[in-house]
């Protein structure tokens, strides 16, 4: 079960440490161990960015490791904002200072330790979202991006900015932020041995759908153009979409009509002509748009203004 938001604070209460251990096991699927110092005042807050989870922690004298029995496969990008984070993998231990990033696989062999008061923001990418994008990470150890690279520093700044928003933005904004972080993930790793893409059918299908979503307004969008954009042959892409349940161009038309329905719910039709909506959604003419829309939804576009025509699946698809 996905929890949209979660927070806890370690107090001086006698049972506070035990509560943290229990919550760590139940919610975070991690072992939380306490060091010799006083961890009082440690805080943790987590919220969802679509398929991505952001965890803002202020910890001291605590170590964290993944529960071995739990399913692994996610990937965590950590930004140190203050103090220090020690990451241990086998006999290797590395200290990360403020402003530095580290990419850590969600594996029991990795231990993270906070020996002093430290703030660390963690962005966790789910196994499903990584698989869809064709990412495969070597779970035997962690990876360190090039901290001097301007792109890496920009991504660190973006993570800090999102963390400072405390999850108070709209659900739609958070989902888009998570999608942007996923798109930027491959910039963080220089070595192909640390993070590699595999040219799987699922990954190609995802990239094709993502390209379609970004280019729905292009009336020239066709099989050849989409195939070229994702470096696949037209026949291969056609087979992938058929295996997914519909033809490629039927998928394109469904997405265009769903976009039109969304626009009709959001705008004042008296201020926006039907012809403009048709062209915004990639239809060659208002007549073609009106006919296709009525066939799909059972009503003419003008009568659909303000109506709730989109299913949750359509909405999620358009937002991704």
UniProtKB/TrEMBL annotation:
What is the protein's species of origin? Paraburkholderia solisilvae
Which keywords accompany this UniProt record?
DNA-binding, Transcription, Transcription regulation
Top-level division of the source organism's lineage: Bacteria
HTH araC/xylS-type domain: which residues?
206-307
One GO molecular function term of this record is: DNA-binding transcription factor activity
Q: Which InterPro entries has this protein been placed in?
A: AraC_XylS_family_regulators, Homeodomain-like_sf, HTH_AraC, HTH_AraC-typ_CS, Tscrpt_reg_AraC-type_HTH
Q: What is this protein called?
A: HTH araC/xylS-type domain-containing protein
The answer to whether the entry has keyword Transcription regulation is: yes
